[in-house]
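To: structure desk
From: M.T.
Subject: fold request, one chain
Message: Could you run this one when you get a chance? Sequence is below, nothing fancy, just the single chain.
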Amino acid sequence: MNKHIEELIKRYPVLACSAESIYKAYEIMAQSFACGGKLLIAGNGGSAADADHIVGELMKQFQQNRALDKELTDHLTKINNARGAILAKSLQKGLPAIALHNHPSLNTAFANDVDSRLCYAQQVLGYGVKQDVLWAISTSGKSENIIYAAITAKALGMQVVGLTGKDGGELKQYVDVSILADGVSTHEIQELHVPVYHCLCRMLEHRFFA
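Reply: Done. Structure tokens follow.
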């Protein structure tokens, strides 16, 4: 796994100071997936787009083949031979990940009825169990809805990975590991977030599907 991080640092030397945090984040997520947990990802704006991107890399093939095992293939074809064969050939194993902004009816209802700052926290409460991980993305580390979600996750016994910038803001108080991207402006930090989460997705895929 260090090979993936070494490749990342070679291409983005500015991330060298984050190498240890990246590896710790990987260990937290890998342990969760190994125990049947899932990843809840929260971000705003560009970070919400990053959450979608991460889900796309984890829930389907990224770089490794993710063919179904024979047992599941047999079950599919037993239910319906022709359709089961299509499913067995086409489906890819995934690592369960949910981007929390993709629930507009729930989020707008909760924002209207209760408090818009707590929409992500409500979803963490509804989805989260102890073996899950919250991946909290905030370039400033000051996003209130992300902070409330992190506090809720910790109260449930979940581990929290922070992907931030600058000094990590208030969010760093509520995370198990904080990956800090060294950038001055939001767009500079976000430009570094992409290779960080690509590296983590590669590491996780290698762990479970290589």
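Reply (cont.): The domain at 2-59+94-209 is CATH 3.40.50.10490 (Rossmann fold). Let me know if you need anything else for the meeting.
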